[in-house]
Amino acid sequence: MTPIKKYLDQINEDNETVYVTRSNNESIAVVNQNKLNWLERYARSEEGSREYAIARDQLIKQKIIAHNPLVKSDDNYWGQVYE
């Protein structure tokens, strides 16, 4: 197996990103097409829109971005609301 094939397979199979550092030039990143599509949809959509929510959910599912709920709704929270 050639070294480039190994890296490309890793990108697809593990949803990894490979960074390529080039001397005297900007570095580049190689990412899975699916990951790139969701990142672009997330970045281009308006926050609060359906498309934004779908893209965000996909990125959370792929563990690309962290799930960060606006409000943690545990028992303490609900106790404060209804007091």
Rg over C-alpha atoms, rounded to the nearest angstrom: 19 Å
> How many strand units?
2
Which assembly state applies to the chains in this document? single chain
Q: What is the overall silhouette?
A: elongated
Largest sheet: 2 strands, antiparallel
Residue stretches low in confidence (pLDDT < 50, at least 5 long) are none
Derived from helix and strand composition plus strand pairing, the structural class reads mainly alpha
> What percentage of residues falls in helices of 4 or more residues?
40-55%
Report the span from N to C terminus. Answer: 65 Å
Note the beta-strand portion.
Answer: 5-15%
> What's the arrangement of strands in the largest beta sheet?
1-2
Count up the helices: 4
User: Whole-number average pLDDT?
Assistant: 84
Helix and strand run: HEEHHH
Description:
The chain is mainly α and 83 residues long. Helices cover 52% and strands 7% of the residues. The chain contains 4 helices and 2 strands. It has helices at residues 3-14, 33-44, 50-61, 75-81, and strands at 18-20, 28-30. A two-stranded antiparallel sheet has the order 1-2. A hairpin with a 7-residue loop joins β1 and β2. α2 (33-44) packs antiparallel against α3. The model has no long low-confidence stretch (mean pLDDT 84).
